[in-house]
Design brief:
One of its GO terms (molecular function) is 3'(2'),5'-bisphosphate nucleotidase activity. Helices cover 39% and strands 19% of the residues. It is of the alpha/beta class. The strands form two sheets. It has a six-stranded mixed β-sheet. Strands 2-1-3-4-5 form a five-stranded parallel β-sheet. The structure holds adenosine monophosphate (AMP) and manganese (II) ion (2 copies).
Amino acid sequence: MNTLLLERIAAARSIALFGHVRPDGDCVGSTLALYNYIRSTAPEKRVSICLEQPMAKFAYLEGFQDIVTDPAQGIHAELAIALDVSDHGRLGDFAALFDAAKRSLNIDHHVTNPHFAMETICEPERSSTCELLYTLLPEQEISREIAACLYTGIITDTGVFKYSQTSAETMRIAGVLMETGIPFGDMIDVAYYRKTFVQNRILGRALTKAVSVLDGRLIYAVITLEDKAEYGASSMDLDGIAEQLRLTEGVECSVLCGETEPGEFKLSMRSYEKVNVSEIAACFGGGGHIRAAGCTVRMPAEEIMRAVTEKIRGQLLC
Ligand code: AMP
Ligand code: MN
Ligand code: MN
């Protein structure tokens, strides 16, 4: 067992936990799991979680109400731990607080991680940061509350145990977590499948706007600020659309290109078995995993999609 995390926690009196911008289930689950672990095993330590406001659907996780969403609140800690953060920029407005700590540690599973913290535990073969974090904590300390957090990250990052990084070890860990008595079926519905009315409608919009190119092997959709305004949707409401596009028959790669502010687009890319989308995201200053990656680009959408299509064509020809 890698004891670095436990050693760093033991040596610190105050600890701040950080995640990435637009926190997903793995980010919220891993930060809250570690928060609950420190609170239950070392109640004398000061521990805080600094995150952009996560989606309300994760409110069933213990400690959710304690999340500090305002960087100006100025949480200073001896030890800063970033979880599921693939690069420094992904710390967003909390970067300065992270940098101000005497020691920093990053626990992550992104293949593109450049080891920006003082110390890094990054295992790209892990399905999720939650799976990795499980291996860094003593099993006997995993309460039902901590298990719920870890299970949430595993199901959201594996698409409920189906993405390529899901391993026998992922399933074994999920099994141990289930044994704590968590309501796993409800959690899968709430954290992964359930959508709000607005989310279902903007998904419908993306599906009808979808464009099929490269003989049907690439499918993409552009959601503009006008689309979002018409449906009352936020950027977070676009979550899951790239994955739904990928499920189209014959598709190898899907891209959702969602406008975040005038002229700026967030790309979510998914692939099936051939295209390495983390490489394509990296060309545009982003990153992620081989089968799921993202980036933010300031260019007209048509130009972005022309460039991305060419890169995907190149990979498909190899
Ligand atoms: P998304 O499409 O936002 O669900 O992201 C897919 C994967 O790519 C996740 O693992 C993200 O952490 C990663 N990712 C998304 N956007 C970026 C970005 N701008 N820079 C680095 N990694 C990203
Ligand atoms: Mn994440
Ligand atoms: Mn993750």
